[in-house]
Amino acid sequence: MLTATGKSIVSGIAVGNIKIYRKPDRSISDALVEDREAELKRFEDAVETVIDQQNDLYDKAVEEAGEDNAAIFQVHAMMMEDDDLLDAVKDCIKEEGHSAEYAVRQSFEDVAHMFEEMENEYMRARSSDIRDLENATLDALMGIGPEGLQGTEPSILVADDLAPSETISLDKSLILGIVTKGGSTTSHTAILARTMNIPTVIQCQEIDDTWDGMTAVVDGYNSSIYVNPTADILKVMLERQEQDKKEEALLKDLKGKESVTVDGRKIKIYANIGGPEDVEAVLENDAEGVGLFRSEFVYLNTKGNPPSEEEQFNAYKEVLEALAPRKVVIRTCDIGADKQVGYMNLDQEANPAMGFRAIRICLTRKDFFKTQLRALLRASAYGNLAVMFPMIISVRELVSARELMDECRKELEQEGVPTGPVEVGIMVETPAAVLIADDLAEHCDFFSIGTNDLTQYTLAVDRQNDKLDPFLDTHHPAVLKEIKETVEAGHRHGIWVGICGELGADRELTDQFLRMGVDELSVNPKSVLKVRKVVRGLDLSLPEKVEEENFH
Questions:
Q1: Mean pLDDT of 483-511
Q2: Neighbours of 549 (CB within 10 A)
Q3: Residue 167 clears pLDDT 80, i.e. is over it
Q4: Which residues pair with 292 in a beta bridge?
Q5: Which of 526, 506, 522 lies closest to 252 in space, CA to CA?
Q6: Using CA atoms, how far apart are residues 245 and 298, in angstroms rounded to an integer?
Q7: 418: left (phi > 0), else alpha (psi -120 to 50), else beta?
Q8: Torsions phi, psi of 58, nearest 5?
Q9: What is the crossing angle of helices 100-116 and 127-142, to 10°?
Q10: Which residues have a Cβ under 8 Å from the Cβ of 436 and sit 6 or more positions away?
């Protein structure tokens, strides 16, 4: 038996034969061509093919992984319409006489290298998106299809790495698990694997072509791969796999039941979503509401221009109507940092996570912001809406945002457009917001703690930089103390406090969160019943199990 290790992306056990995913041969000649016009036509046809493919992948990803995770393919389609990139390829053909294939490789690689040289880790990682498009364009030119790459039998897929388009193109019914030599925890492939709940281990350096066809186990719980496992290991892994299936079946029995502890403490368990297409998952997993509707994905999924008031109104209305009377908390546009759209014309920044983003953009571009606020207020007539502003670090910002909302409501009233009541709150995601939480609470109906950014800013660790993973302690005492202080400040002023970041689904912390007084946890829809199970097993009347150093 050979034991290999890596980094687990998705927990779970996969047992089956290994299928090595071999990339197609894309060897290219540097010989010059005679008919340059014909090469230009071949390239233009290939571009149209790739754009169509990316749009098809988007539709497939929406169905399998949700609109927020599918957005990368719309971004890819937009990249294929970038004039600078297209002109570079065309010039290489027209001016130098190279083949379309050669011109694509040279031009796309130049752009990929440009991304690799950027200081921001997230932007560096986008070089893989450029190479994904490079390969898609070469495949269109060379007539290379996906046939034969995956095989025809269910298997554990092993590869050097997988591009987002490859991940979503694969037949999921044939994938038992995924193991890659490369990859990062923040890659789109990792996000897609999590969403599709396929046991996945990345950064496994021991991968070898000789594994092809061998029996293996992917242990997503312990970040391990067992190739040709012993009978004892195989027995233990199969038993754990069967246990997982039984637990999934038991979770279904929790549908329709309250999220209440043994001693009677009730808590609301909401879901995080990216758009209307996620409503089905909210209902299927019996979430009690939506604690984070990431409205920026409405912007990311629009080409050319920001979504109109009517487009936004329809998206918000659809979710509110479908989930009424459940509460739906919609975060206003959080564009910037790792979420960029071309039509915003945002400058490249050395440190975008701390730059021009979220509420800073909205308060600077007030007409842009008012379009969203009007759409939200119009939609409020159709359900139970709460609106929260991201990246608030001062009372001034919060008051300004609320004043704009009041201005929009008055405009709609004068126009005779119906609106409904709206709770207004903020995401607490910076140490600054924690420190002035009492002041902010005076202007809020609720707080929702965004633990992803709060952890990043508190620990001074870029969460997009996988090299810093060893230093990203999500259970750090400072972060837990900030959460506790935010809850206490909110309650002092009579407002409810929730958690909408990744920590909300961390069941190791559920007991601590409830003892802190957290009122609501908003998690990935697939985690709702798992968290409910933990809540229903807790007895807060018993002594606290949290180690004292967590808060000191």
A1: 95
A2: 7
A3: no
A4: 272
A5: 526
A6: 35
A7: beta
A8: -60, -50
A9: 170
A10: 394, 395
- Tell me 266's DSSP state: B
Give the closest residue to 531 by CA, choosing from 503, 506, 512, 552.
506
**Nearest alpha carbon to residue 73 among 150, 169, 173, 179:** 169
Using alpha carbons, list the distances in angstroms from residue 149 to 23, 197, 259.
Answer: 7, 22, 45
Dist CA 282 CA 77 (whole Å): 29
170 neighbors 31 (Cβ within 8 angstroms): no
Rg (CA), the chain: 25
Query: Mind listing the pLDDT tens digit for each residue in 7-20?
Result: 888 888 999 999 99
Contacts of 223 (CB under 8 A, 6+ apart): 5, 6, 7, 8, 201
Point out the catalytic residue in the list 333, 362, 408, 500: 500
CA 382, CA 464: separation in Å to the nearest integer?
A: 37
Q: Which long-range contacts (CB under 8 A, 24 or more apart) does 56-64 make?
A: 57/165, 57/168, 57/169, 60/168, 60/169, 61/168, 61/192, 62/277, 64/168, 64/172, 64/195, 64/196
pLDDT tens-digit readout, 33-71: 989 999 999 999 999 999 998 888 888 787 776 766 777
DSSP state of 32: B
Q: Tokens for 25, please give them.
A: 């041969």
For the ranges 104-108, 271-275, 397-401, the lowest mean pLDDT is seen at: 271-275
**Nearest-angstrom CA–CA distance, 326 and 303:** 31
* Residue of 422, 507, 435, 415 whose CA lies nearest to 478: 435
Is 204 marked active-site?
A: no
CA–centroid distance for 59 within its chain: 17
DSSP 263: T
0.70 surpassed by pTM: no
Classify burial at 174, counting beta carbons within 10 Å of its beta carbon; exposed 0-12, middle 13-18, buried 19 or more: middle
At 83, which helix (H) or strand (E)? Answer: helix 83-94
pLDDT at 239 over 90: yes
Secondary structure (3-state) at 305: coil
**CA terminus-to-terminus distance, the chain:** 45
Q: Considering Cα of 77, then 83, then 85, then 87, what sign does the dihedral take?
A: positive
Decide if 511 contacts 486 (C-beta within 8 A): no
Confidence tier at 121 by pLDDT (50, 70, 90): low
- Is position 188 annotated as part of the catalytic site? yes
Which of the following is catalytic: 92, 188, 362, 444?
A: 188
